[in-house]
Amino acid sequence: MSMQYVLEFLGLMAVFSIFIVVPGADFAVILRQSIVHGRRAAIMTGIGMGFSLLFHISYTILGLGLIVSQSLMLFAMIKWAGVAYLVYLGIKSFRAPGFNVADIHVSEEDRKPISAPRCLGMGFITNALNPKPVLFFLSLFSTLVHHDTPGLIQFSYGIGMATALVAWFAAVSTFFTVKAVRDRFIASGKWFNRITGAALVGFGFRLALARAAD
Q: In this structure, how many other beta carbons lie within 10 angstroms of the beta carbon of residue 111?
């Protein structure tokens, strides 16, 4: 992989690493799995989300390639929409309240053992039906990945991103099964949201300026 693609991948991962730690539907499911079913179930659910990410990257690459081939103006509009989405997501995260484990209601039915395939399926479906990765993938690739980058290289970026996602949720699954660590993290949830939100807004403005200079 040439240095051009290495730098492109690093820029992509810099934004994505902030994106994956911003709490959302995926985070909530992993948190619930950790508390209700334990570490193994939560990790398997995270792996399912990683597979779903490859699904998102596949149609994103194909879709952006078709858009570029049909209309460069439309492609530019999508790029700016992506930048706007980064800023919106950042502001929303900045204003979000902290976490509340009390919102997770656990019944006796919930505590029944859950199989690994079911955890994988739950993770895949949760991520696949979540509009957040759909919109964010479009913004990431339309803003940071040049349309001339070969599809195979772009897919390798997706593999790296899926690996990072699985690693993050594996870490969350591990730490959140330790009550003392979980309580400490939840106590600082509001500041965690503010830091990640500010980072996303900063990335959005940076990408907007970079685009304007093209």
A: 10
